Structure prediction request, 574 residues.
Amino acid sequence: MKDIPTWIDEYHKGSRFGLNGKVLLKKNSKYQEILIIETDCYGKALMLDGCWMTSLRDEKYYHECLVHPALSSIDKKSHILIIGGGDGGTARECLKYSQVAKIDLVEIDEEVINVSKTFLQEIGSEAWNDKRLSIHIDDGVKWVEKTNDNFYDVIFIDCSDPSEFSNLLFTDSFYRECKRILTKKGILATQSESPESFKDIHIHILKSLNKIFKLSKTMYSFVPIYPSGIWSWTFASEEELNLSKLYYKEVMRIEKDCDVWNLNFQNAAFQMMPNKIVKELNSKNDQ
Amino acid sequence: MKDIPTWIDEYHKGSRFGLNGKVLLKKNSKYQEILIIETDCYGKALMLDGCWMTSLRDEKYYHECLVHPALSSIDKKSHILIIGGGDGGTARECLKYSQVAKIDLVEIDEEVINVSKTFLQEIGSEAWNDKRLSIHIDDGVKWVEKTNDNFYDVIFIDCSDPSEFSNLLFTDSFYRECKRILTKKGILATQSESPESFKDIHIHILKSLNKIFKLSKTMYSFVPIYPSGIWSWTFASEEELNLSKLYYKEVMRIEKDCDVWNLNFQNAAFQMMPNKIVKELNSKNDQ
Prediction:
């Protein structure tokens, strides 16, 4: 079975997106079905419970847009929390910033980390050996609850779509807890689903963060292997999200290495809300 | 066969995107295989030679981004040429501008117009009955060749991916001919493929238009049913592409009716070039 090229599809509300490839690994962890596929199109790819999570050749579309708007814009960024992110890509992008002193990566499913280290080494890359990275196999919600006030400078929520075990990562009470453990100028950065294929959840996240934090901004960009290809990331803070000029030279160095993100792209992406979402948010605010 | 819901997929370089639905029509025209599918996800959809062209529920992502950056930015827009565009969506968006006096829609395949009028009425909508619209069943390249100098204010190239019968729409000589028949301040607007799934053609179009016209700008946005979901449109002119303030009120009215496009979105979309394309264009310019 393992060596026969075949179509592996993610099914989503009457659409499917498939990649041709060979299944290298199929196993059930305590939480989900894990597949590693060697695809023709995007290199090795990870599928969890039938959903494409990441692939060697498209992962930068996602990871660069989650990490750099937050880390290029915040002054103090020594303590970082990543919730989820078991493929290592978010940690890798964070560790490009010299000021990052400590990352706690809290992943509920140890098997995701194990298969990522084995099959998707290029994604986590040097991050796995970086002494600044601490891996904790734990529930992100519980980790946040037991963390002291004002502890992290940046929190990244790098999770899968809402499901039985990730639902709580999309609730007001969880966002409030995140706010409690952030430093005063800290930033919460979360993937915020697709305005096209997950419109209701997307709008829910935007409204929640807008209510709980003083400021929240959503950027829209592309993730080719996710449903509809349109994706979003939302950044929330009690402070303005302006690019710090203090470390401009470092940001320029990081930008050179990026496949998707650059400062110009980022500033634009924060204005790419489709007009129907603009209208829907406005009409709901009027109610 | 016709009534059984099934998966209809577009295959593209080791990936496939499928919609579940019922095939309402399958026929071969002189040029291509035409399918009309009633899909669960996007309503009725058109597939040509195995490629998704448009659907009732996602067509605005494409048509609004092709038409409005050109027509909201140009002062004189009385004479318009649409090459391709047999589904009627581009004409419909153009006809929203009161200043548009005459549209020549030149479609090579009469059958595309026939099936669009029959099955996808909502896309062309009132455009089909608008006296300003003239339909010509002809080869776009030949039409341009036989047109007098400085005739059209705006030309829209609303074509499918390069193929046996559309290849010539992507050549330098065709772009030069378009320039010849444009008025002095005229704009050529073309879909310019995906920087992800058609990268080589995409870069070719950008370089060609940049070489032939004094100014060309590319915008990036989303088309959920096209390969990778990332799409681009390029606008070329001998003049600056600034939004004319003269008809601002009309543009505001049109914006209100849009699903995707608004002026803010448009200005951002022109800055959404993925960094790897920026780098590739820069390195090629250096050679």
Summary: Chain A is about 30% helix and 30% strand. Chain A has two domains: 6-55, 59-286. Chain A has a mean pLDDT of 94.
